[in-house]
Amino acid sequence: MLPLIRPCSYDVVFTRKAGSSSTVETFLRDVAGLAAVLPDRGHVVNLCSDRYRFAVGFAAALCRRQISLLPPDNALSTLNLLSVDYPDLYCLAEDGQPGPGVFLYPSDAVGPPFQGTIPSFPPHQPAAVLFTSGSTGQPQPHSRSWGELVHSALAAGTRLGVAALRGATLLGTVPHQHSYGLESVLMLALQHGLVLDAARPFYAADIVADLSAAPRPRLLVTTPVHLRVLLAEAGTLPSVDLVLSATAPLSSEIAREAEARFALSLVEIYGCSEAGQIAARQTSHTDEWRCLDGIVLRQDEAGTWASGSPIAVETLLSDVIELRGPERFLLKGRITDLVNVAGKRSSLAHLNHHLGAIDGVVDGAFVASEDTDAAVSRLMAFVVAPGLRADEILNSLRRRIDAAFIPRPLILVDVLPRNTLGKLPREEVSRLLAQWRIRQ
Amino acid sequence: MLESSIQNPEEAALAKLIISTLNLEISESEIGPNEALFGDGLGLDSIDILEISLMISQTYGVQLRSDDENNHKVFQSLRSLSSYIQSHRLK
Q1: What are the chain B neighbours of A201 within 8 Å (beta carbons)?
Q2: How does pLDDT run across A306-323, given as a tens digit for each residue?
């Protein structure tokens, strides 16, 4: 059995928000209180945007042996689609959030006085299901057991040296309904005696204010985009003992600048929704990734496979990897069909399917941008659609795909220069783009 | 005046900055001052908002905060964003 939380004592602070704080004991009472009133169903979509409520909801679901579903977004259409595959799901929601089978987070569900027993769960108990969009466009479920989540959090904590930061406040800028947020915000805090900051800062000024309000030692769990806007702030940045970055590759320049200006140490984490966190590196010192303890990689004609505790089933990774040993590697970009825009994933096949399904579109192809200097690498699209304007096609696309994947630019052409295999050669794409730039 | 669908000079300047910040392939006059910046309008996402917030801080000295009650209203349209900047600008 593996415990929900590993605090050094029950009366220490577990969460902090806007100046107030509550203890581990209060957290466990809230968990017991919510667990007692949750609907009797098998799957829950935890929509709580408040981090503390999300944590209580996640823990209460575990107590009731319910599985938390983590869809790629909380749009009503996504949730309704999910309820087809999981007919027994309900949504744990805060005021005004729409969803199938909404159960409102009760403001008064306080459990009985804490008896001194921390809930613990068997390693094989299914805890969460994360989703990625596969090449067909149908969301692919990836199940994560409680044991996988705990072992992953412990392995990451060992690599990051979190033991030395016990009692530190952990502030995250990333959503908790995401593989990275679940592992590096919630699970890291639960399993390493950290204080979970319930704030979710967005703008640079928010991050600075929330960091300043937290006592040291403190951790910041963030992304390359947030780091870039933070470093663009002219003023003094509050010192942070450990900064974690994930979702997209971070440049060594940004890593070095962050360590020079405010981060005692900046560690980048490499992971994916399929397998969870896999490796880490201190980006200012090396471009080589080292697997978390217990994880090894191997390659065959299909690609690179990750296995070993805490990954239950050997998993094929969707990146091009150069192995330098079973536990050391370099990342060489994504496998061509898969795209990642600011941490959101899709596949070109899925996006092309939606583009081709628009009335009036004869042919069309999404292409990953060659501009590798941009902070966020967006997509572009070439479309054959006589009679349609670019803005009409864009409006149709917005109703079908996530805003992150909207092509910039969308270029109308008379015909796509496909080769005999039906593919669009890279040099033809460059030629089309150059022609279009001249016309602009 | 507020209902006008023609950009005032401040709005036109802001539209130009947004387009260059985000590498949008449109001209500034194509951003209607009352058109939604998210969704069916320009279709911006949260990463774009962060990029725009950085540009606003550097250009106008205005630091956006998400605990500001008006935050949602601020990013509703070019007009709402521009009038917020004009009433808070330091540069």
Answers
A1: 66
A2: 999 888 889 998 888 999
